[in-house]
Amino acid sequence: MTVFTQFWSTYGSVVQFALINMLLGISIYFTLYTGLLSLANAGFMAVGAYVSAILTIHAGTPLPISLLAGAFSAGFIGWLLGLPVLRLRDVYLAIATLGFGEIVRITAVNFDKFSGLTLLGGAQGLDGIPKLTTPAGLIFSLILLSFFLIQFHRSRAGRALAAIRRDENVAATMGIDVAGYKLLAFVLGAFVAGLAGGFSAHLTRFVGPNDFTFSAAVNILAFAVLGGTAHWAGPLLGAAILTVLPEALRFMGEYRGIVNGLILVLVILYLPRGLFNPKWLTRRKEAGHAQA
Amino acid sequence: MKHPIRIFSLLTLLSVLLAACAPAATPTPEAPAATEAPAATEAPAATEAPAMPASNLPAEITLGAVHDLSGATALYGTSIQKGIDLAVKQMNEQKFFGDATTVKVLYEDAAGDPKQAIAAFEKLIANPDVTLILGPTLSSEAKSADPVAQEAKMPIIASSNTAGGITTIGDYIFRTSLPESAVIPNTIKVTKQALSLTKVAVMYGNDDAFTQSGFDVFKAALQAEGVEILTEETFAKGDTDFSAQLTKIQSLAPDAIVISALAEEAANIMLQARTLGITVPFIGGNGFNSPKLAEIAGPAAEGAISGAAWNIASTYPASADFVAAFNTEYGGNPDQFAAQAYTAAWVAAYAIKSADSVDHAAVRDALAQTTGVESPLGFFAFDANRDPVHEPVVLMVKDGKFTVYQP
Amino acid sequence: MFWQQVVNAIWLGAVYSLFSLGYTLVFGVLGILNLAHPSLYMWGAFIGLMCVNAGLPLWLALPLAMIFSGLMGVLLDRIAFKTLRDRNAPHLATLISSIGASIFLISAAQGVFSAQVSRFPFGVFPVKVFTLGPVTITLLQISILAISLAIMLFLRWLLMGTKLGQATRAVAFNPVTAARLGIPVDRVIMQTFFLAGALAGAAGVLLGLAFNAISPFMGGPMNLKGLTVIVLGGLGNIEGAVLGGFILSFSEVMSVAYLSSDLRDAVSFVLLLIILLFRPNGLLGRSSAKRA
Fold first, then answer.
1. How far from C92 is each of A30, A225, C86, CA to CA, in Å?
2. Of A13, A230, B204, C56, whose CB has the highest number of CB atoms within 10 Å?
3. In chain B, what residues touch C223 (CB-CB under 8 Å)?
4. How much is the ipTM here?
């Protein structure tokens, strides 16, 4: 027990950051699963973080309400953005969504100056957010989302998204509403990213525009690709590893960045399809059947 | 054998605690001694308890330090690290804590990321050997990580946070960095008179907390002095080309250009402004105060005026000794980040010595009582809000070096 | 003021084009976004600086830096990309590999050169200011403008007018067919990476001279501009990179001059989104469906 307390007092935040990043992993999984390369998640996270933090500070709303408001705002903006940009493909979509993320960041920087209000705090960010995020809340959300994902994959919508990823044109000829389902995936991703942003704001007690830069967007993509996009557990694994890795490498001192980069390259070279292999699950199932 | 010592140190502790409740004017024990003993060169001649046979300090005092040692802000973190390392080296060389006690620093990198700052703070707080934490580098990191330290009652001494709302996080949070609000109004007042400013253009980085808060203070100070702001031009972190903003400023013909930027950015602004044929003076804040300004801008930096918390050209012994020691150690001049970090480490040392304990609460109370510690920044003391109290200076670049501005 | 702003915009456009040419070249041939390109640019600047500090004249330091970063580009391909190509790994894996490589290269540069900002010594390039009526321009600015255009013409000639270019275009079109036709695909790829690396190195030295801000992190802010530029022009398109560079620079300079410098970056990204909505493959880009 004391070992656990010692561990928790040393690494409690790291574990919670990993859980938040797992949420972000799920958020980008929705779009990647549909074959969309979107880098808007950092921007959606910013929307969720600012909206929920402002509600908590100024309206005193309880955490779940703030979080949901943040997530719904992010989802709504995702819908507005998705309508026009989802016609783009591959890297063009990636850069367009990256541009959106930058617009969100620039808005956060300039909002107070142009509106004359004191709301977002400009470059200095928003501080004094109460620390309301708990590990239990994060774990609960993750379990809920995992159940949702399992159900979703079995649903009509889930199968439609898989078909779109395999071949958009074939899916369209099969009568699948490609544009509609793409938008659905995009909005779901935005919603979850907004939720993660809310959790993050109420954990670090601070939201600033520089938490949501280009590199934050690319990091989220790295969670999913390193973990593997074939199964939703992949991004979870990737997020956990990429959060813990820099902390675990602290003992390397000034060589931390070098080793961190090297590990990332090596893992992706040897496991280009990601760390998580969906076959693990089927094999275990087969083994289970054999036993029964 | 042990009892008298313990009782004595208990008494010392109590007296410190008592002193903490007393009015701020009460001099701390080291104040009289410190006046003649610059920290940088020799061990303070006297301590609060010369008769004490042995100290209560452990064989090794561990200071934690959370700074940006990697990432784009490593520029400042590594400069700070040099300042701290130099201070600790001197403490150990001059046996500041006596023959039986040495000091070491545990560094944790925050990489400019508030999340990493929290993780680093937690790691150091969980380490029972760590007496206090020096850091973090950025105000945004402080706003995330300082509450963690405050809850754990771990004393924090920041040396580079200049934004408002840092030390108000709690009574365990101290800083040796003079906030911009204590530096800039004085600069504007002095330069307005000397240069008879009526209208200026302002340039600042609008996506950086340091440069934006500097701008806010500049704006208020200019308005208070009745100087007209012709235009507020902004740039983004990492920008290298400022010619569009400067061309616009040139067309408005200001009396001076007020810049809230870090030295590296400001240097390029100056170079490009002079190339465009802009001849008016530049006025800046703490961000200017780095040898990098003249190193990068060269002749373009001549005449640039900077408000600052620390003056590298000061003949004040503790400052001159610090600059000399820094040059011997690293082969280059220190910047203000290094000077303030060096001060923070020494302030910590004096507090630990006066508390004669590595207990967090005792050290905190001793820190709050800090007065008259000799430092490169002058006689160092904290005010009631745990911010530093000392006079800002106005400097001017002359022949590639900062000198005190004499209008 | 207007004509000076036009000159500012032309000069900045040359800067953006120079940075982006190598970036887009790699994409044109291999279809991968090499996010380590900005790190080669940074290393090029440092090598040039080292040569000059060692007493070499600039005209020797520039080609040396180009050769060094060209070789670094080849090494980068051998280590981070070739294995993935051989295994026919998904493109996203390549993207993550390039991120890992870039973290490594930046951390290594910090280890070798420290985090401090450096500049070329005064007088390495003559400071000459020309004043023509209302307009001021320096010799360095004119040189960089000329070099950017020369490199663009050279690349165009190389790709369109030489045998090597023919082979490169064949590889870009379809590596499998190219290999069957007897084209040494691997060698062509190596040459491409050498060329792209050398271009990054040249940009590093020249922009290092122009902006006096050489640091391990100098590639980051440029990266976002570079990505915008190559997507605007059409990925893989040499003329597109130049066109994109000038569109971005004019948008930036004119919004500072006549709107507000606060809105400069927001205007650029909104412009990017609008252009992509009308031209989903950039201004001069081909349909990505055909490439795939």
1. 15, 7, 15
2. B204
3. none
4. 0.93
